[in-house]
């Protein structure tokens, strides 16, 4: 009945406004959590593609995620679009910080002019959102992210889930806009325990664990949508293939009229642009991906591997974007972040009917073409009905990735070596390790001493060092044989001489050891020139340092 | 056909109404005055500026695009968003600079000032009468300036004032969200009566900024501020 009051053109316009409002809302929120200052230019001549007369850039991945979550629907009563912002530490613990909710309630304003008043009020609401995103506690945290934690976002559509925010969370209303089909409301619920964790606590290195442990939240409603870091590697656009946002083809030429309302003209024309080549139209300079905790001697990065779950091609040798089909139709429980500090559980078979949280990083797609609906397709049908972006939902086209956690200091362990038993306890990294893991960990069990080694070989460093600089210093010193007095001992499995040889030097840093199947060869090779350059540059320092040890 | 904005009469005069007034109060240290004032002014102007209008035939017009940018404060743990327009920023800084200079001049003693941001419409009158300025929204920013004794207090003040400003932004947004009276979108001949069209990249509603300085604060405000800082130090 309410629809009959609204002309079909108005209805179409309204739906379009709401859709793009939702997309822009997500952009504003995620961009406000990138950790960088945002700057866009004013332009006196309308470009025709700036929705709501505001210069808000579109990060393609974000738009893509939003569209995926909405799946062609619009916010309606009981169906809200939510952007969840959470924090994830380098240890792998995560905590929800905010939930931004775009909701619709039933209160209709029949009298309001869609093409004029609603549009302008939506513009005003976006401005309010710009302002409010800077004043919640998560903003300051997000500006300081990178070393110890990153900020992630997740978009979901449906019922709002606020339980992850802890007790006493606060709400701030950004604003409302009445429309003939309902009132749009935009608000943010945010955790306040954070208020006592001043950002300064994150500047001192320890003890993040001590803080997080209080806010550790078990997700009661794991949802299907993946989490993403708000900032991501820029410039790695070797074929990142999110197509430019469809609405680049949708010109929102707004023509307003000052004549009496009955003659109000609002035109939205669809210009037929050339399909722009898929490119990351990221004009925001962002720092290196937050979880690339690079240190001088190695770059330890969280990396992804194609899962052995029987999906996807096995010939991907390097990190790929996880792409998911993770809605109720494709339930693959892969990861449950935030449940504990340990490695996420990996069931051997997809669990139907369950939904999983996904965390994902935006890494460059080398050679993987992420297929999604091309911009030129079915623009007209893309209003309220199902989006034609079905292609990206198919699990068969896509690779599934596994989140490889770091156990201990940047030691990569393949997931399938970790048993389920370890995973249910928080901070599994501190728990007694699986023997299987320990066997592989060169830090715990240094490789056996080379008994058969010719005495003339000489270097006394432990076998674990792969020819790094720490071993080189002893090359000058050749030990023919070492028979310490009273060195035989039947109790110990090794004699004193061996022990001495073995442990004369500190054990090899795990970060220098060859990681087991975690980092791809390509990555290693790629990073080598860089590492070499750094070492070469610093050779004088290293030498000087070694001098001081003599 | 009914609609939300007042139906224009032949003179284009808005219906008689009260100018709505909002008051915001902040207590800051001397060197924070300018940034605090700018944060509030820019946030209001963000909501009260549009893109440039381009009138076409048949009484239609198109609107330019407003860009935005983040501003970090140096003396306050605070950041805000402003319209990307250097002209507008300069105009506001000029208005905010004067109270700051006065505040600094009287440093050593606490003081109080007030900055007013008024949005108005012009109503053209026939000669020999001059144009009327009819305000429709008035923002008053009361600034209490406190002088602090040591660096520790100043550090706390940085954080506290930052938190307070966050509250003010939320207050401003609440007011904006009420969708109360806004001047009707003008015809081309009337646009200068509603908007400031002198800027090249954005178009704020016509506004005026004025300020006044009073001298010493009442003791109550100073002691409250100091107590707040001391309490935080004691925590």
From TrEMBL, chain A:
Coiled coil: none annotated. This is Autophagy-related protein 13. The gene is Atg13. GO terms for biological process: mitophagy; piecemeal microautophagy of the nucleus; protein localization to phagophore assembly site; regulation of autophagy; regulation of cell population proliferation. One of its GO terms (cellular component) is phagophore assembly site. Residues 332-392, 438-472 are annotated as: Disordered. The keyword Cytoplasm applies. Pfam families: ATG13. Residues 373-389 have a biased composition (Polar residues). Residues 96-196 form the Autophagy-related protein 13 N-terminal domain. It is found in: Cytoplasm, Cytosol; Preautophagosomal structure. Transmembrane segments: none annotated. Belongs to the ATG13 family. Metazoan subfamily. InterPro entries: ATG13 (IPR040182), Atg13_N (IPR018731), HORMA_dom_sf (IPR036570). Keywords: Autophagy, Cytoplasm. Residues 458-471 have a biased composition (Low complexity).
From TrEMBL, chain B:
Pfam families: ATG101. GO terms for cellular component: Atg1/ULK1 kinase complex; phagophore assembly site. The keyword Iron-sulfur does not apply. It comes from the Eukaryota. It is found in: Preautophagosomal structure. GO terms for biological process: autophagosome assembly. The keyword Nucleotidyltransferase does not apply. GO terms for molecular function: protein kinase binding. Keywords: Autophagy. Its main location: other. InterPro entries: ATG101. Belongs to the ATG101 family. This is Autophagy-related protein 101. It comes from Asarcornis scutulata. The lineage of its organism: Eukaryota, Metazoa, Chordata, Craniata, Vertebrata. The gene is Atg101.
